[in-house]
């Protein structure tokens, strides 16, 4: 199986980390009798030779040897080798011409050797048969032969997990060979009913939802819930319980957050993904999953709900309340999953607030989270409760503030509580006064406190903020960020912070000029003091974020900022979407010239969803004058999909941002009689 391996010039080939001289050792390691060596070799293949899905010239050179390994029965863990081959051949190769060429050559090699997978589809090892099922569709031809093989394998196969893989392969086949799809669809329709077992029927329904949704039963949700419960009843699970939520170490959390029913998770994830925009059905399905007697089904449902909430504006309180009900579960894995999802939801977690409040009241140990590294942080249940804006979080946070251990990040939860958090201001103020301005952890300790006091508009904290601002030594970016936070706090205090004016004027010649100018405007209302600095940042700064911030601050000045109009008009006609939108909004607010810049704002709104919240805010500020863009706001409110669902790196805070966009749109339209 290694014939010719020493004739390859591996030193001249490359993988993710340079020379491929180590690849022969990895290939031989895959055939080792030592399980640890085999596992290490497979890790090395994925870590270097097929790093993050990449196909290098070394990857291509490995394909013949991997095919030879896959058919040798004496080789253990051949299923892992077949899965590696499938992954190599399934890569599009979109990272440059060389990568695309390598990927195409790898696919060609696997197509040429595809008869290997025909043999493996009937292997004695069920794991190998399972991995080979998808390879038949990806690499074998012609389609009629592939479909005949899949039909044959389904007829003779007795292993449930292999049957699930064959059902998935039928769905893949229908998507790739639409001219032959009817045969695969007919097979899936047959597998979705009796006498087949509930797991296979669920798998078939998930594939039908993707390739032939018109064949799904009219009573899909109750049918799926019933099958799911039948499947759970068939499975005797052992070793999945972790007792009540255990030690809050990183290793323990990672272990508990992994689904312990991977098969069930994949079945339901496939169905949810295929249902896509059928949000009503998906919400009903989640509710069915979340009321299952099996905690593993409920745990899978909790994790799937996160994907639904991130992408769609569901407006469904019922699944959120059911997720909250999982907080008291005996399964630590289920408790942790529910907590993690509720933390992501911010105000949408309101229907679970009663459960969160009961947990942090009756179980004080969940108010803090002690990690393996660093100091304690706010416990997930208490953070989630505060993020809902529920005032019941305030007395609990007060108790934490009065305790011997106070997490530094507590301050970041307080802005979500609004005025209800006002009783916490004295304790926050005292803690800020005790932070040394020049300590190694000053930023970590002070930034959350400044965030909280800014949100509360606590003017009594001005001496503590000034002490911090004046005492910080010159240094790198952490000091700059903390200076910015202190300056924003002073601006939030308005005219009460008059004694800070000299300090802020001193910052007008620094990198914090925009923040200082904005604070000065809030305190003094004197445009002549801040205009020179803002004009300089607008025209001279090479940092687009600083230019955009300067434009935003100039917009607040209104007509007093007319000297900035030439620079703002220039930026509105060039640059990226966010910069153009900010400058166009500023011109509109300063000069009342919407006509010229309406196309700019419309194009930015469509081009970059991140511009929508600031543009909607501009429209809201303008009142009736913002009417030319009201159609965009109404369209946004009618859309069922979150505005950043397609943005790379989309995360939990973007759910909160999306809800904020909807709130601004509603307020803007309601304020002019369009609610």
Per-chain topology:
Elements: E1 14-15, E2 18-19, H1 23-30, H2 35-49, H3 57-70, H4 78-89, H5 97-112, H6 115-120, H7 126-139, H8 143-156, H9 160-176, H10 181-191, H11 198-211, H12 220-234, H13 250-257, H14 262-275, H15 279-290, H16 295-311, H17 317-325, H18 332-345, H19 353-362, E3 368-369, E4 377-378, H20 380-387, H21 393-402, H22 410-413, H23 425-433, H24 442-456, H25 462-471, H26 477-493, H27 501-506, H28 513-524, H29 527-539, H30 544-557, H31 565-572, H32 577-591, H33 594-607, H34 612-622, H35 630-638, H36 652-670
Antiparallel strand pairs: 1-2, 3-4
Helix pairs in contact: 1-2, 3-4, 3-5, 4-7, 7-9, 8-9, 9-10, 9-11, 10-11, 11-12, 11-14, 12-15, 13-18, 14-16, 15-16, 15-17, 16-18, 18-20, 19-20, 23-24, 23-25, 24-26, 25-26, 26-28, 28-29, 28-30, 29-30, 30-32, 31-32, 32-33, 32-34, 34-36, 35-36
Can you give a write-up of this model?
64% of the residues lie in helices and 1% in strands. The chain has helices at residues 23-30, 35-49, 57-70, 78-89, 97-112, 115-120, 126-139, 143-156, 160-176, 181-191, 198-211, 220-234, 250-257, 262-275, 279-290, 295-311, 317-325, 332-345, 353-362, 380-387, 393-402, 410-413, 425-433, 442-456, 462-471, 477-493, 501-506, 513-524, 527-539, 544-557, 565-572, 577-591, 594-607, 612-622, 630-638, 652-670, and strands at residues 14-15, 18-19, 368-369, 377-378. A two-stranded antiparallel sheet has the order 1-2. A two-stranded antiparallel sheet has the order 3-4. A hairpin with a 2-residue loop joins strand 1 and strand 2 (18-19).
């Amino acid at each position: 199986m290694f014939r010719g391996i020493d004739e390859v010039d591996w030193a001249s080939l490359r993988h993710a980390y340079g020379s491929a001289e180590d690849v022969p050792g990895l290939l031989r390691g895959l055939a080792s009798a030592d399980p640890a060596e085999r596992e290490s070799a497979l890790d090395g293949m994925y870590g270097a030779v097929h790093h993050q899905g990449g196909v290098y010239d070394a990857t291509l050179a490995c394909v013949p040897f991997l095919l030879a390994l896959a058919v040798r029965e004496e080789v253990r863990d051949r299923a892992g080798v077949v899965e590696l081959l499938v992954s190599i051949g399934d890569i599009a190769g979109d990272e440059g011409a060389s990568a695309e060429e390598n990927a195409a050559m790898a696919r060609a090699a696997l197509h040429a050797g595809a008869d290997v997978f025909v043999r493996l589809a009937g292997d004695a090892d069920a794991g190998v048969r399972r991995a080979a099922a998808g390879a038949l569709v990806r690499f074998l031809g012609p389609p009629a032969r592939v479909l005949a093989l899949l039909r044959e394998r389904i007829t003779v196969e007795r292993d449930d997990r292999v049957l699930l893989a064959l059902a998935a392969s039928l769905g893949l086949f229908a998507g790739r060979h639409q001219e032959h799809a009817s045969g695969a669809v007919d097979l899936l329709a047959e597998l979705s009913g009796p006498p087949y077992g509930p797991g296979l029927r669920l798998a078939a329904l998930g594939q039908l939802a993707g390739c032939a949704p018109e064949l799904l039963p009219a009573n899909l949700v109750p049918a799926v819930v019933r099958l799911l419960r039948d499947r759970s009843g068939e499975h005797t699970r052992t070793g999945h319980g972790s007792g009540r939520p255990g030690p809050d170490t990183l290793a323990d959390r990672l272990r508990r957050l992994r689904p312990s029913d991977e098969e069930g998770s994949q079945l339901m994830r496939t169905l949810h993904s295929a249902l896509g925009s059928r949000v009503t059905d998906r919400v009903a399905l989640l509710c069915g999953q979340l009321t299952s007697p099996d905690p593993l089904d409920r745990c899978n449902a909790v994790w799937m709900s996160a994907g639904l909430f991130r992408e769609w504006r569901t407006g469904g309180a019922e699944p959120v309340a059911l997720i909250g009900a999982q907080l008291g579960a005996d399964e630590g894995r289920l408790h942790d999953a529910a907590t993690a999802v509720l933390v992501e939801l911010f105000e949408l977690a309101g229907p679970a607030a009663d459960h969160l409040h009961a947990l942090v009241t009756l179980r004080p140990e969940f108010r803090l989270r002690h990690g393996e590294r660093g100091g304690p942080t706010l416990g997930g249940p208490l953070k989630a409760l505060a993020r809902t804006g529920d005032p019941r979080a305030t007395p609990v946070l007060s108790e934490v503030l009065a305790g011997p251990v106070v997490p530094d990040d507590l301050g970041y939860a307080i802005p979500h509580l609004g005025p209800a958090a006002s009783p916490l201001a004295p304790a926050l103020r005292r803690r800020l006064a005790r932070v040394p301005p020049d300590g190694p952890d000053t930023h970590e300790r002070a930034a959350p406190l400044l965030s909280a006091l800014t949100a509360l508009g606590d003017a009594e904290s001005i001496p503590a903020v000034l002490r911090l601002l004046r005492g910080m030594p010159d240094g790198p970016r952490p000091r700059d960020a903390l200076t910015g936070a202190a300056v924003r706090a002073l601006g939030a205090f308005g005219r009460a912070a008059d004694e800070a004016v000299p300090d802020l004027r001193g910052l007008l010649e620094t990198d914090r000029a925009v923040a200082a100018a904005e604070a000065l405007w809030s305190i003094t209302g004197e445009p002549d003091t801040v205009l020179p600095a803002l004009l300089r940042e607008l025209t001279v700064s090479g940092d687009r974020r600083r230019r955009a911030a300067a434009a935003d601050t100039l917009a607040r000045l209104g007509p007093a900022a007319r000297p900035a109009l030439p620079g703002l008009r220039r930026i509105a006609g060039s640059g990226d979407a966010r910069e153009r939108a900010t400058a166009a909004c500023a011109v509109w607010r300063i000069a009342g010239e919407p006509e010229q810049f309406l196309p700019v704002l419309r194009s930015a709104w469509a081009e970059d969803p991140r511009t929508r919240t600031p543009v909607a805010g501009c429209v809201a500020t303008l009142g009736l004058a913002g009417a030319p863009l009201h159609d965009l706001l109404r369209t946004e409110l009618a859309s069922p999909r979150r505005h950043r669902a397609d943005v790379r790196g989309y995360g939990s805070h973007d759910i909160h941002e999306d809800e904020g966009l909807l709130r601004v749109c509603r307020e803007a339209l309601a304020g002019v009689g369009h609610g």
